[in-house]
UniProtKB/TrEMBL annotation:
This is Unannotated protein. Residues 14-237 form the Luciferase-like domain. GO terms for biological process: alkanesulfonate catabolic process. The keyword Flavoprotein applies. SUPFAM superfamilies: Bacterial luciferase-like. GO terms for molecular function: alkanesulfonate monooxygenase activity.
Amino acid sequence: MTVFGVHTGLQHISSDDLRSSWHRIEALGYGWISIWDHFYGATGKPDDAECLEAVAMHAALACETSRVRIGSLVYSVGYRHPAVLAKAVTTIDHLSGGRADMGIGSGWAQVEYNAYGIPFPETKVRMDQLEEGIQVLRGLLHNDVTSFEGNHFTLREARNEPRPVQAKMPIWVGGGGEKRTLKIAAKYADGWNVPFVSPDEFARKRGVLADHCATVGRDPSEIRCAINVGLAWTEDSLQSQFGHLANAVRNGCLTGTDDQVLDRIGQYIDAGADQVNIALRAPFDLDALERLSVALKLA
């Protein structure tokens, strides 16, 4: 069964507005709510810095909801040590009663790293960090004791206690890079998420993921595949939400009539999407989410 979720950006919004939004999203019948991990807004501008911190808001999401899965799409391994993340998300799992999902990526928003004095190495190094980091997470979240020796992270008989509520907390990899990201997902992830691509591009990347799975001897059906899309019933809505990025994300947005939006969602499902997440940016248009919920007959 396809899960429909909502990915809530943490930029330019108050914690009170986020909490009330989560309540309404859950009441509308969506099955997933996630947060992102950024210190600045998504525009990449050095003065766009109004953004709430992700781990704290992930914990708040756990406490403010009672039914939905609560995800992170995705924490950056470049400024989040995976062992510390494992401890944090385990606590969040306890706060939520076993509804937490862990997401990890290599990081991309260099403006944040530069502003905070955090090293932003070349792509290969960041991908190496991701590959080591997800192994650290798998060990600490899925096993009682973990030892790991890498170039970036080292664990020696490390324990993560108390254990998560879930016997095996799902670990997601975010991103569309076909040489490393999808290969890492094939080897280590329980879920893979990519934002703002068309159904055809989603299907093609999912095929690349399946090829990597074949190489490492894994059944691709073991990896849950999710697409993040925009929701803009009109062109004006698209422009107001995404501004100068509107054309870049257009192919990954749901727009038009109810029937056209449902048809587009069907194309993603036919392309292999197990989960479709609506990616919101403040100010959130919750009425648009309600319209979609009614069309999908979620509530």
